[in-house]
Each structure stands twice: as structure tokens, then as C-alpha cells.
Amino acid sequence: MAYQAGGQRSAPRPVAETPEAQAYLQDYASLLEAVSFPSVVLDRRWDVVLANTAFASLFRGVGPHPTAMPGDNFLRFVLFHPDAGSVLGDHESSWCLPMLGNFAAAVERHGHDHGLQAIRRDIAQDPIMEAAYRHGLPHWIRTVGEQALAPDGAVRPLLHPDPRWGATDCRIVDETPGVLRDMGCTRLTLVLRDARRAAHPARRPGRPRRTAAHLSVVPASEA
Q: Which of 29, 51, 205, 216 is least buried, going by the fewest C-beta atoms within 10 A?
């Protein structure tokens, strides 16, 4: 069963151009729902095409937002939702900057895409995000290397609302089959790791991102 922000969705979003492709997505939604870990299918704009119940449950505590709900567009959630850091641990370095890098690469490949252009305009209108995009991202890539941009295999911290998980890590696994890839979609599964509290005793939700004067990866002179 697939989910959208605000509730259950009975059918995938219309990325399929043929009835056969649409039927594939409907069957794929059943497969996704059988997975116990959070799993999501995104198009090239990071719009959520399909997501399972575990994905919806991970973000069940976030407040409403007009444009940045995790069940609508995952990139917008990471960049613009004030509650993103309450679920995505080490929000700036582990989630925000890698996804900004992925977005920059997508803009280079599909700069004509209206959805990507709209996200770029919203980044430009947010002083903190624009500083991250223009200054923080290049500085961060020089520091950690471009390999840190690849989502597949990355281990990133989460703050799960279910106390059975709590402060944990997930490994992001790209499970995109050829049919989805041909549709311009990507499937990512967040494989949760248990027994992480002892390894990360000090991890807590950080301050809301927008309270900082500038991003920690951006030298103050460039912010």
C-alpha cells in the first residue's frame, strides 16, 4: 500500500506512460509494502511515487508543511522542513549536503526540468540554503570527497519515533530494477540498524536548522 502526505494513497503517482507501466507500479506498491524497512520510490525531482507504511511511520511525528512533506517530495523535506532534523540525525552533513550535491548533479543533467527549476528557485530564496548550495557544498565536497554524495551504501543516522529503534543508523540501499530506472525513478530502502544507542549515547535531535547564523560547513566570511 502506498502513502502520500496526509494519508493512504490507492494508486501510484502518474509517472507511467502506458497502462502496462501503471499496472507494474501498482504491483510494485504491493512488493514495497511487504518490506519491513522504510522504502520509497522517487522520480528525478525527488517526488515520492510510492512509499510503504514503514516509510510513513518514520515521519509520523513531523508537523504539516505546505510544500515539504516527506510523502510528497523527499528533497524538499530534507532541505526545507523545520522538523527534518528531528528525524534525520546529523541533518546538515549526513542528509542535507549529500542531497544538495545530488540535486546539483540532477540540475546539470536535466536543467530544463520545471520541477527542478522550482526547487532551485526556492533554494535561492532561502539565505541559509543558498549559502549551503554556493559555499557549503563545494567546501564540504573538497573536505570529504565526491564519494560521499553516493546514496547507495551510505550509513546515515536516524532518530526514529518508535522507541524500539530510537537513535539509530540506517544503511541506504539502492534497489532500483530496470523497469523503474527506465521510468526515471529510483527505489531507496533505509535498512535500520538496531542496538545503536550504546554506540551513539550523545546523539539527540539538534537545534532547528534555521536558528543558526550560518551553516557550520560554511566559513563565516562566506556565509
A: 216
pTM: 0.83
Q: Give the tens place of pLDDT for each residue, 163-210.
A: 999 999 999 999 999 999 999 999 999 999 975 443 554 444 444 444
Please give the angle made by the CA atoms of 124, 127 and 128, to the nearest 5 degrees: 115
Give CA angle at 3 (56, 55), nearest 5°: 25
Q: Can you tell me whether residue 146 is helix, strand or coil?
A: helix
**121-133 tens-digit pLDDT:** 999 999 999 999 9
For residue 53, pLDDT over 60 is answered with yes
| pLDDT value at residue 118 | 96
Residue 10 DSSP one-character state: S
Q: What is the dihedral of CA 50, 158, 82, 146, to 10 degrees?
A: -80
C-alpha cell at 93: 552533513
Q: For 184, which DSSP code?
A: T
Contact 209/80 with Cβ under 8 angstroms?
A: no
Which residue in the block uniquely carries the three cell numbers 560554511? 218
Question: What gap in Å lies between CA 88 and CA 75, rounded to an integer?
Answer: 12
pLDDT at position 16 is 64
Which run of H or E residues covers position 126? none
- For 191, phi then psi, to 5°, come to -80, 105
